[in-house]
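[INFO] parsing input record for adenosine deaminase
[DEBUG] input buffer:
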Amino acid sequence: MATDPYADPKLEGVSIRSLPKVSLHDHLDGALRPQTIIELADEIGLDVPSTDAEELADWFEDQSDSGSLVEYLKTFDLTTAVMQSADGLRRVAKEFVEDLAADGVIYGEVRWAPEQHLGGGLSLEEAVEAVQEGIEEGEDAVDRSGRDIRVGQLITAMRHADRSLEIARLAVAFRGRGAVGFDIAGAEDGFPPSRHRAAFDYLASEFFPVTVHAGEAAGLDSIRSAILDGRALRLGHGVRIAEDLEVVQQQGDSVLVTFGDLARWVRDREIPLELSPSSNLQTGAIAAWGKNLEDHPFDLLYQLGFAVTVNVDNRTMSRTSLTRELALLAETFDYRLEDLEAFQLNAAAGAFLSVEEREELIELIGEGFDA
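[DEBUG] output buffer:
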């Protein structure tokens, strides 16, 4: 197995992995351990590209590095196939929590679409209950190891389907039983949030938090619809908000930028951007600016005062971790510990928690970075 240079990276002599982190954009069906996929596939007689965990990890990374969100999403056919039973969902959810904790995450939100996990005969409610059981088993295991973590579910509807109102009602029904928010995911281009206005109206009437995938495979119109039709409190990715910025002058580190109305609204309202650097490269979300991490508008958005957060999107497909994403950003943009702390504070402030819980989370982050 090749050595991962980002397994335990240091910044200013401090292990990035040891720092307290908040994960807001992390898909359950994009975060399976390759060995778990192999074992679950064997149980149901499903063929996999390789029965060697390292080779299967290679396959996911190669297939995902296509420059197209549509092609990237095809890799989920395999992961969702082994998540069609209560036992499979419980195991994946438990390991998800354990892997977050091992990455230094103290609060995470896991998004997944129950409607994609009914092939084994589960009902929507049974699927959500199975994932919640796995989350709680994972939290208990982490607690026994002497660490603390809390994970909430973001119940997700597929934007190309017609079940969003049903899924929204499901999410609200599980408020207080694990569900902390709602999302729509899947092929973004051609399926704007406005198609799901009835679901978003219902969620607004129930005062239930919403994040929306927008500004990844589609541009400003998608972001505008997420805010106006979806009442999104956060933007899933949202990287293409940079299309509403015009750099009019740049001298050294000084940049003069003019804002469009949408970009100014997102910045001034401190609407968190759930940026996922490696994934954004793989799916071509930053193609307008380039193909390398240094081309990513992450640093521009950060310097302009947007509420940027750092996320993995899909750990398996991008073969990454939150630690690795932070290390890559620090290496590329010469960030210091105070910058990494700012990203975590942004994420904590945007978490779908009560104000008291967010304040506690912010305090824990401060203490961890000070230590």
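[INFO] Residues 124-144 form the longest helix (21 residues).
[INFO] shutting down worker
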